[in-house]
Specification:
The structure is a homodimer of 345-residue chains.
Chain A lengths: L1 E5 L8 H13 L3 E6 L1 H10 L9 E5 L13 H4 L4 H10 L5 E4 L3 H11 L10 E2 L2 E4 L2 E6 L9 H17 L7 E6 L9 H15 L4 E7 L10 E3 L2 H26 L3 H21 L7 E4 L5 E3 L6 H17 L1 H7 L15
Parallel strand pairs in A: 1-2, 1-4, 2-3, 4-12, 7-10, 8-9, 8-10
Antiparallel strand pairs in A: 5-11, 6-7, 11-12
Helix pairs in contact in A: 1-2, 1-10, 4-5, 6-7, 6-10, 8-9
Chain lengths: 345, 345
Amino acid sequence: MRIIIDAMGGDNAPGAIVAGAVRAARELDTELVLVGRGAEILQALEKQGIATLPKGMEVANAEDVVDMHDDPATVVRKRRDSSMVVGLRMLAEEKGDAFISAGSTGALLSAATLIVKRIPGIRRAAMAPVLPTAAGRCVLIDCGANAECTPEFLLQFACMGAFYAKRSLGMETPRVGLLNIGAEDTKGTELQREAHRLLQQLSERGTIRFIGNVEARDVPLGAADVVVADGFSGNILLKTMEGTAKFMSAQLKSIFMRNLLTKLSALFCRSGVQKLRRMMDYREVGGTPFLGITKPIIKAHGSSDELAIYNAVRQAADAVRGDLAAAIGENLEQITVPKELEHVE
Amino acid sequence: MRIIIDAMGGDNAPGAIVAGAVRAARELDTELVLVGRGAEILQALEKQGIATLPKGMEVANAEDVVDMHDDPATVVRKRRDSSMVVGLRMLAEEKGDAFISAGSTGALLSAATLIVKRIPGIRRAAMAPVLPTAAGRCVLIDCGANAECTPEFLLQFACMGAFYAKRSLGMETPRVGLLNIGAEDTKGTELQREAHRLLQQLSERGTIRFIGNVEARDVPLGAADVVVADGFSGNILLKTMEGTAKFMSAQLKSIFMRNLLTKLSALFCRSGVQKLRRMMDYREVGGTPFLGITKPIIKAHGSSDELAIYNAVRQAADAVRGDLAAAIGENLEQITVPKELEHVE
């Protein structure tokens, strides 16, 4: 297995990216290709005390870098020599099995769709981060790639999320829930009602295990293993969890700072509180996979450090082994809605 | 001022409702009317050790009770003698200035709209709970009454939220933000883009202070005083905050339970942690006002206890003093969009 990494994407590139890749090359059984400005990558390696490339690691030169201000739609054309575009082209040309970038989300999504293409039959690629829950974790799909969705998109997200959870995350028979504002199947908008009907059908055929609507309140409490949402409400869910956790962590800090005894308590509870804070920081879990592209693409967070990149490589390897494209291919008929039956576009 | 209370609504009725009302009658400068089964109300009063009605408190008889399983649309017709419908009729007939119920949300919304009517020019009533934030608190409008919205609805929600925050909650010049998935005004769906344009116009006229899009992550961190959303995404925001807080509280509990020293810490931090837990339980703040009805209506939580009802009475009194209907009347022209300019319906 060979994983291509954009060495120039993100706030800490190329240093943290190279460091994470070095660790992955040593500890994981994968070959790695670092794409970016050769000189800078070698310099970063030297800083790690590495004079020659570790076994299984290569560098592919790319002189340009995608900027956070670049218009995602024009990146493929205007930044053709960037590490992101060169890396994605290598992926499309089968010079690797997966691609990781900590660069601009919009640019990566747009370039991945144009260069690596969607899995045949899949209408939209979606972002599927893994969130912490009381039951362990859950996959949220979509969380922002598609603000506007049709019921068929949601049907396909559900399938991709369930297959990913099963084949790459090792969940046995993931419980798939539809994010909604009530439990009854009449709740929500036309989008949710129609998606509910399609998901029910798919569940009756045994393709996925649909457990019905799931309310946002119950997502952190572990009510579903895969939460299906349009990109708008999925984003609201994801970001509210993040903001609430941040808010509560700050409140907790001030509780511990109150007096001598509470400061002592902070010391006693330190490891637990740190673990909780890390758990609530979903970026720590690794990157966000884009599901629906022919090959695995992992968006690592912009502020990724060495550990985050290492985790993203592990995640990419799991995604390669899961082979979502094959699973989708086998079930394509069941997750495509004839155009004339589509209600919303 | 005279506040009408549905004595039979909610899980703890009539006991908790009557107890909260008694406390309000004693401590607040308002007259109260308890609507419901007279015999049961008097029995509940007796349990409080009260033989005769306190000064300023009355009982209005209503033999029926709205059930949680009643279809909201038929409550006015099928439950005409219920405490909820009788109370709302009294409000419409000016026998009181506000109405409080801990009964079914859907039934209350539907019956309030039919009996007490919307403020002329207002297209939809909205639910506007007050949420805890790092900056103190914020009003979220809507959070579930209207799953599908037009840009004009959001414009009106913004105005109602801002006027309510200013006139009833005492916020000086509330910062109004539009819930969206990014800061740029091109973000979101057509609904958000068009609402952004309308809100910008209203802000330029000085009617409200619009600060642009606000991301869900920044809501708990206090980025806005009034958060405007369609009922679907508002509900996702509200419920995710609730679920995340619940999840983190449980995690915190297990951190404190780990060993002898952490158990000791729990003791030291107890008052702070309890305060935090109370703060995150938005029900404690009081009820959720329905904005857009000609007179103040407060939905108290179904599990309201004595304190929650007492707080709801205080909140109802603040709402009466704020006189939202008058404020809307003065600004009606600015918050109505000519039908031919409405993009979505």
